[in-house]
Specification:
The chain is an alpha+beta fold and 436 residues long. Helices cover 24% and strands 27% of the residues. It is globular.
Length: 436
């Protein structure tokens, strides 16, 4: 379902609200989005700007599942299927995203948010960004962009990720197009991080058809129904980027990052800008949920994997839960090793049985309380490569962050009477027979 149809559907279902009061982009809008718990919202009256702003279409799994025509319980499997069977998008000659073309761009026209006090500047965050690697082809990902001039951003490029790898190896500028205002399918696909050479736009098209169009000034393709497209070049010039609040809700530090020079902005005549507040629900889900298919695939190589969850409590990055059908005594330990392989930044992983609801924190704590013994079921791996987002990790300039990784086997042993582990259930009765 394309973006506009989906927003209309959410509104018809009373899941989207409209705010008509004038709202400032300086802290006020971000705090309203936060106060709404990132419920889908459209700000119709943005102080000083012509474009409305919307937010919240990837703020929980139920909304995401609805956006790509599935359920929360089946979401993982739809993503796995799209990763395994990408579908090349149709190319079109004319597109809504190019109804207005500005080759003398001024970023001040865009309603970029200043999210929090202490931020380095105004940021674009819902930024589906595409480049072409001379060897592996198109790559699509997210890069936060901080405005540093009339037509300049600094772009956060993480080392060892595809955009940074391509940027480092090419001579001169690297063309990049940034698409803002996209369907749920496109947003999820851009966050997945498949193997090099696998096209994210084709994954998105497998989730929900999304045609592409050639950029006006760059040799790149972008979703035809995007609201805005920012065409430009990642240069070898560096400038200040940050501070910025990251996944763990702690402030990331200031860095020197590549300058992204904007050469052209195209957009719909009645374009809507998309906001995504940092460190909160949408940011976390778009970072963590896409790791679930990779964990699922790795664990499935060693045992019967039933489901995977990267939890919000772990910043949607550092903690994972893997549900397995335990057939052999060593399946949980194999699953722990495979899970860390599937998501290398994960710090703690918990393995549970099929009867445990992985979406319930209470059920997970219960499994830990009743099925885990620390001297037998705990795996500790010291001095492992970890995530720079973990403030408790060992951080040294120029070196990979080190951490201690922990795996927890909270499954029932195979060689004992399982009846003592089974939950006893009451039966619900019709209270009308008793309460009159």
């Amino acid at each position: 379902m394309n973006l506009r149809k989906f927003l209309s559907k959410l509104e018809q279902e009373h899941k989207l609200i409209r705010i008509t009061k004038e709202v400032s982009l300086k802290h006020e809008m971000a705090n309203i989005i936060y106060s709404l718990n990132e419920q889908p919202v459209i700000f119709e009256n943005v102080k000083g700007y012509d474009f409305p702003v919307f937010s919240g279409i990837t703020s929980n799994r139920d909304i995401i599942a609805e956006g790509i025509g599935t359920t929360k319980e089946q979401l993982l499997f739809k993503l796995v299927d799209a990763l395994r069977r990408p579908k090349p998008p149709e190319m079109v000659a004319k597109a809504p995203c190019q109804e207005v073309v500005s080759k003398d761009p001024d970023l001040d026209m865009l309603p970029l948010l200043l999210h929090l006090k202490g931020d380095g500047g105004r940021y674009a965050t819902a930024t589906v960004s595409t480049i072409k690697d001379p060897e592996t082809g198109r790559n699509v990902s997210y890069h936060r962009l901080m405005q540093v001039g009339k037509n300049k951003f600094t772009a956060r490029l993480i080392k060892n990720r595809q955009t940074r790898t391509t940027y480092d190896k090419v001579e001169g500028d690297l063309e990049m197009a940034v698409c803002i205002g996209n369907s749920v399918a496109t947003m999820i696909a851009a966050s997945l991080g498949p193997p090099s050479g696998v096209d994210e736009f084709s994954i998105g098209n497998a989730l929900d058809e999304a045609p592409l169009v050639k950029c006006v000034t760059k040799d790149l393709e972008v979703p035809a129904e995007s609201e805005f497209v920012i065409e430009g070049r990642l240069t070898k010039d560096l400038d200040r980027e940050g501070p910025f609040v990251d996944l763990t809700e702690t402030r990331d530090f200031e860095r020197q990052e590549p300058v992204f020079v904007v050469d052209c902005i195209t957009h719909r005549k009645d374009a809507m800008y998309q906001a995504l507040i940092p460190g909160r629900l949408e940011h976390k889900i778009l970072m963590g949920m896409p790791k679930e298919p990779t964990i699922y695939n790795e664990v499935s190589n060693v045992c019967s994997c039933k489901n995977v969850l990267v939890t919000m409590g772990g910043g949607s990055w550092l903690h994972g839960v893997v549900q397995i059908q335990k057939k052999h005594a060593d399946d949980p330990k194999k699953a722990i090793e495979a899970a860390f392989k599937g998501h290398k930044s994960m710090k703690h992983v918990m393995i549970v049985d099929e009867d445990v609801d992985i979406f319930s924190p209470l059920a997970l704590e219960w499994a830990l309380a009743t099925r885990f013994q620390g001297d037998e079921d705990l795996i500790i791996k010291s001095n492992q490569p970890g995530s720079s987002l973990d403030p408790s990790g060992k951080h040294e300039s120029g070196k990979k962050t080190l951490t201690t990784k922990v795996g927890v086997d909270a499954t029932i042993p195979l060689d004992i009477d399982k009846s003592k582990y089974e939950v006893v259930h009451y039966s619900k009765v019709n209270l009308d027979d008793y309460c009159r």
